[in-house]
Write a structure and sequence with these properties.
single chain, alpha+beta, Glutaredoxin, 2 domains, four-stranded mixed sheet, 6 strands, about 45% helix, elongated
Length: about 200
């Protein structure tokens, strides 16, 4: 083996060692990224800060509602399903002492919620006697959805609301136990029966 061949051989070995080191460093970096991603994915379902309209304040859903059975509903003031506010309130009053709560998230995604925050609160109270928590108006669909609704959809098999008054039911352990369409009535049907079952567990 002449000098040129020997030099070429050592150069190849040097390049190979650098490549192995590079691959090892990349593997460590990617592992860190994956672990961070997994950490975000396993974040508790309710561990998000949202703005409540009355009283107006930023709250953490987990801190206030952990351990409860929760019905999350995207609402609107000018929808054919808006009268469900009344039955949602009745449902809340019926089971609130057992550890149940309704959370309302107004949205204009379907162009039927033009009101401001204060107007939404007044509308709900005056017309339907709503006392369950209502949150700041936000998007609930697709890339523009608020982070809590993105998580709800992800936990439901990418099921974003198809219309106003779509409902997600969350159990005491912060798992999505079911989701229901706008036509599913809050009282006297499958939703109420599922709530009763979850409360008894």
């Amino acid at each position: 083996m002449n000098k040129n061949q020997l030099a070429y051989k050592w150069e190849c070995r040097f390049i190979m060692k650098k490549w192995v080191i590079y691959c090892a460093l990349m593997a460590i970096f990617l592992e860190g990224c994956i672990m961070n991603s997994l950490a975000n994915e396993i974040k508790p379902l309710l561990d998000y800060d949202v703005e409540r309209l009355h009283p107006r304040e930023l709250i953490n859903l987990k801190e206030l509602y952990e351990g409860k059975v929760i019905l999350v509903v995207n609402t609107a003031s000018a929808c054919g399903f808006t009268p469900q506010y009344e039955t949602l309130e009745k449902l809340y009053q019926k089971y609130k002492d057992d550890g149940f709560i309704v959370l309302g998230f107004p949205s204009n995604d379907f162009f039927q919620e033009r009101k401001t925050g204060d107007e939404i609160v007044n509308f709900c109270r005056v017309n339907y006697g709503v006392t369950f928590p209502i949150f700041k108006k936000s998007s609930v669909r697709g890339e523009k959805a608020n982070i809590f609704y993105k998580r709800l959809a992800a936990e439901s098999g990418d099921k974003f609301p198809r219309w106003n008054f779509y409902k997600y039911l969350i159990d005491k352990n912060q798992n999505v136990a079911g989701f229901f369409s706008s036509v599913d009535k809050p009282l006297g049907g499958g939703i109420e029966q599922e709530i009763k079952t979850l409360l008894e567990r």
